[in-house]
Specification:
heterodimer; A: 78 residues; mainly beta; 1 helix; B: alpha+beta; 2 domains; nine-stranded antiparallel β-sheet; 15 helices; binds zinc ion; aromatic hydrocarbons catabolism (chain B)
Amino acid sequence: MHICPRCESNRSEVVTRSPVKGAWEVLLCPVCMFTWRTSEPDSITDPAKYKSAFKVNPQDIPNAAHVPPIPEWVQGRS
Amino acid sequence: MAYKDFRDFLHTLEKEGQLLTISDEVKPEPDLAAANRALNNMGDKTPALFFNNIYGYTDARIAMNVMGSWPNHALMMGMPKNTPLKEQFFEFARRYEQFPVPVKREETAPFHEVEITEDINLFDILPLFRLNQGDGGFYLDKAILVSRDLDDPDTYGKQNVGLYRMQVKGKNRLGIQPVPQHDIAIHIRQAEERGENLKVAIALGCEPVITTAASTPLLYDQSEYEMAGAIQGEPYRVVKAKDADLDLPWGAEVILEGEVLAGEREFEGPFGEFTGHYSGGRAMPVIQINRIYHRKQPIFEHLYIGMPWTETDYMIGVNTSVPLFQQLKDAFPNEIVAVNAMYTHGLVAIISTKTRYGGFAKAVGMRALTTPHGLGYCKLVIVVDEDVDPFNLPQVMWALSTKLHPKHDAVIVPGLSILPLDPGSDPAGMTHKMILDATTPIAPDIRGHYSQPLDSPLGVAEWEKKLSQMLR
Ligand SMILES: [Zn+2]
């Protein structure tokens, strides 16, 4: 379990480890989809130092605008 | 002349002194992006970068800035690397008129060497990294994506080959941003109206000619592969995908095959864009990857994108200007001289034209707004006389400063469409647009004092010749 630097959820998971053992891991947050490498500067990896303008509130995510909107299913199209 | 594949082009860059290999160890972040940003700050003749010693990786090889300068753009077209930009523009326009050149089909390709269909993990297979500090993740930003029109699958030109940013959001998942002005948005809508997934294929590490065609604002039913053939002067080589009826570039390093999941939207971004601003985070479609194949020891290509100018601007400068030039020439064949739509993908366009009568230049500007590319770009159109070189900005500024009267020559058209990434659009996707007429007024538009334009002293041409010989 890791804290996501961007949305601060605690659900992030390791998606890969460096081919050279012990250099870094890549983590992915399933809430806001943020991805980071553990060897990045702490302005990226540390929730306290992550730039406030880029923080994401998990409650806003379900309300994010759909681009493009999902169209109606059109009967008879195939 | 065609390049055999991506590696063939890299060899040419190396031979021409336009490839810089960095063998010192670099960190994936922030070094890869920082080195590229620094290079983009160093002028318009810079080399491509080749990194072969990246911290934590054993054998990752990454090429960047492959088309990030005018010499590299000239080499893409097989021209001498010091070819002036204006000459590259007119040669590109000449080849554009050779369209279409039918493709050459192959049964197998070098990328069939290694194939992965189980336990796919894009983070293991691709050396991914962050570009700008506010980016929401790691992106594929110079991959081409192929998809087909579902209503008319047999019209070859409606198969689309486009360049879209794709965020890697899971071991086999990508996010894609389909701007409504781009063709992929049409294909996604067709599939979602049927409640079906849209099959797609993604190619990484391609020869620069298909990347150029993929980033050219062609008409919807014009084939990027047939345009690539026109630009390189011989048929473009393609091979079929395995999971769908899609054509792939034969010379690619890596292929991902998958599908856009119908009805799914997932948080994507922000991403530092060509506008020099981040895109913001929105819910966008998702691509699931089902199959990957690649060459042994593949070379991965990425590009740095951000505040202009970056590789993107060299890549889409000439090839954005030429379709506008051709479409304006369709309307005004005897007047249009050249078009420079190189600034921020054509948000600004400069058109050089002859004028037939008073008010003519403004009509040329209005036509630019209604071209297919103009619908999403061309927020500011500057029209200049035939003797002003639109690629020479000091000349354009001279025309603006002396020919333009704000009362008569600034036209604002309200409430038009623009790509939603324009950070000034409000709401996103809507904007006013402006035409600045910096041409000399002619009858019946009689105004100003333009009867005594400056000429040159006698004998300038002879002196130019003489001095250039002395300076050799
Ligand atoms: Zn998060």
